[in-house]
User: What shape does this take?
Amino acid sequence: MTDVKKTTEKHLMVFSGRAYPELAEEVADILDTELVPSNIFDFANGETYVRYEESVRGCDAFVIQSHTAPINNWIMEHLIMVDALKRASAKRITVVMPFWGYSRQDKKHRGREPISARLVADMFKTAGADRIITVDLHADQLQGFFDGPVDHLFALPVLTDYIKEKYGSADLAVVSPDAGRIKVAEKWAARLGGVPLAFIHKTRRTDVANEVVANRVVGEVKGKICVLTDDMIDTGGTIVKAAEALIKDGAEGVIICATHAILSDPAVDRLKNSPAVEIIVTNTLPIGEEKQFDKLTTLSVGPLIARAISEVFTDGSVTSMFDGHA
Assistant: This one.
């Protein structure tokens, strides 16, 4: 005999950085496991140190870190965690980033600009990542930036199930904040039972970040409760102006829905004072006490991420989670 054969068992291990351990703990609890104990700290000069307190050799590693502020610190920590796993002989490393940092920088709008979302993908590949799990990408083409499998999860079922339960009897319309997200809005409209669709025609300034200078509603919204959807809320300027345009056009009410609640200043004040009756987001990013307000409802994507991890670990189908449309 010239070879030795041995059947080994797969074992799943879940790791978390310091950016948002609460979500990672929720995911681990759903998977009926615990986060791997880790020693992570910063040296005096700001460098990050990572060491795992258990052997990770041969494991199927899932490294959870949501890229919240200060975003550069947490991305670097995420990369170092992956590198530590690679050098400790983890069998497969899956990066779980509920929010993909730099995802808005997915193409060149003008000359001499970077494509930073691609750079982030390249860095994770170089660090040793084999796979990425993420939620509601800003643009679908980001899946092609990483040289390996990317599981793109959708928060759509989580958000629409809540809306159907609370507002199902109302006369609804789905509104896209811009023409570029019409396809996503169509999925929302279908999920809500084929409700009408509208979108906001806007003019965005290229010289000032996060600023929209004009809004016009395209579609019939008069007398309807408008579900205004977007992938993220950063400073809130775009989404609040869209809500105001809908009310001005005769909408009976506006519900704002977004997956990623970045909520940079002055988003909270803008949303508080907006005409929206409710702002519904998910917990892909941590929302501190200082950002909580009466109109805000936060839904968990923990079960969604946990199921995706389970499907990947057991060589199942992530696509089956979304009726074959992922």
In short: The chain is about 30% helix and 25% strand. The mean pLDDT is 93. The first helix runs from residue 21 to 30.
